Amino acid sequence: MKRHELIVIGAGPAGLSAAIEAKKNGMDVIVFDENQRPGGQLFKQIHKFFGSKEHHAKTRGFIIGQQLLKEAEDLGVRVELDSTVMGIYENKEVTVKQNGEVHHYKGDAIIIATGAAENMIPFKGWNIPGVIGAGAAQTMMNIQGVQPGSKILMVGSGNVGLVVSFQLLQAGCEVAAIIDAAPRVGGYGVHAAKLARTGVPFYLSHTVVEAKGTDRVTGAVIAQVDEHFQPIPGTEKELDVDTICIAVGLTPMSQLASNATCDMELIPQKGGHVALLSEYGETSVEGIYCAGDVAGIEEASSAMIQGRSVASHVSMKAGYLTEDEFESKYQGYQEALGQLRQGMFAPKNKGRNDFTETDEGYPISKTLLAHGYMTEEELSKFPAASYQKAGIHPVIECTQNIPCNPCQDACHFGCIKVGENITRLPAIDEEKKCTGCGLCVASCSGQAIFLVDETYEEGFASVTFPYEFLPMPKIGDKGKALDRQGKPVCDAEIVGIKKTPIMDKTAVVTMKVPLEYVHAARFYRAEV
Question: Are strands 116-118 and 174-180 parallel, antiparallel or unpaired?
Answer without folding.
Answer: unpaired
